[in-house]
Fold:
Amino acid sequence: MKAVCWMGKKKMEVQRVDDPKILNPRDCIVRITSTAICGSDIHLYDGYIPTMEKGDIMGHEFMGEVVEVGPEVKKLKVGDRVVVPFTISCGACIHCLRQQFSCCDNTNPNARVAELLMGYSPAGIFGYSHMTGGYAGGQAQYARVPFADIGPIKIENDLPDDKVLFLSDIFPTGYMAAENCDIVPGRSVVAVWGCGPVGQFAIRSAFLLGAAKVIAIDSVPERRAMAEAAGAVTIDSGGDVMDELQAHTGGRGPDAAIDAVGMEAHGSIYDVVKQNLKMETDRPYALRQAMRCVRKAGVVSVPGVYGGFLDKMPFGAAMNKGISLKMGQTHMQKYLQPLLKLIEDKKIDPSFVITHRVPLTKAPQAYAMFTKKTDGCIKVVLDPTR
Ligand SMILES: NC(=O)c1ccc[n+]([C@@H]2O[C@H](COP(=O)([O-])OP(=O)(O)OC[C@H]3O[C@@H](n4cnc5c(N)ncnc54)[C@H](O)[C@@H]3O)[C@@H](O)[C@H]2O)c1
Ligand SMILES: [Zn+2]
Ligand SMILES: [Zn+2]
Structure:
């Protein structure tokens, strides 16, 4: 089959590789019909996530048709149409039972590596380095899906791929980020740093949860325009963000701040230099700003991915202002069914975010375009048949 392989920093190649095989009785194999590039993939592309190896198959946002099931798979059968969530979860450990699926204890075969860095290992993730399991990803024609009865959600209606594909990651991720904001319907003001795909879904989810006002911050005009189309007020991140947020909130600051930017924030020379000198793993410029700008006793919700050790965090502000910090890889399986219902009920059409459809064979160019944000690119869907 064809697959997008990581071959080094800023080096993706479409290669012919072996088709995946059932390895465990609870696996299934999915023939992929649609797959996408995520902001998280940029962190691998730019070489900031350790434990990638040449030839690793990329991708964790995919859907398709089940073509083979292991002997212990009970809920899925050949021919089912499924969306596969990016976190792999066992469904039976203490975290899965508490719906903390991205903290699953049993799906990272390389847990020891993650434990050295983090104390305890998070769940395995498709196509996201050996530290989170070394699983082959879904920017390919086929993928092996472990714990097939726990992850994939069956799509039993005729909604096209474009409307359900993002259940695999960015819609639940934006939704959990908004849910973590403890929104009081009709009252809460939520500020969202980053108008990439995750920020876009966080903005729309905040409105779905009843936010009175959403203020979105980014430097890219077309991304701000997409946020405005959802009803958000926008701020250019190149300006005085604190000042403008105060102007929009009667001087009090937003009730909640979402960092949908993560480890590669723009705007701070200090962090660029330190990251390049390997004196800092991440560029937490947006996170610092969110912690400073949020109102007293507010919430800072962090869907943005961070990898390691962050410098100059305003922890004094967080402590003295009584901020709550909430974060995490998304507990995907908790959100699949309720968010599918929102799509079926036409409360949201996730395909709004797609700006580019590209053959899988053109993935290397698509990575460069998405990373550099050229050609108005906001979200790329790859077609594995081309
Ligand atoms: N928690 C999860 O489970 C999860 C899932 C998916 C993605 N993510 C993470 O979410 C983050 C966003 O993903 P995405 O797909 O939207 O990526 P993206 O790179 O397309 O979006 C990031 C946006 O942030 C903007 N930005 C950069 N610096 C900024 C600043 N200082 N202030 C305001 N905006 C700034 C960029 O212009 C861009 O529009 C990434 O870190 C990604 O890894 C997390
Ligand atoms: Zn993702
Ligand atoms: Zn588990």
The pocket of zinc ion (ligand 2) is lined by residues 38, 40, 60-61, 86, 169 (CB under 6 Å). The chain has two domains: 2-169+330-383, 171-327. Residues 332-344 form the longest helix (13 residues).
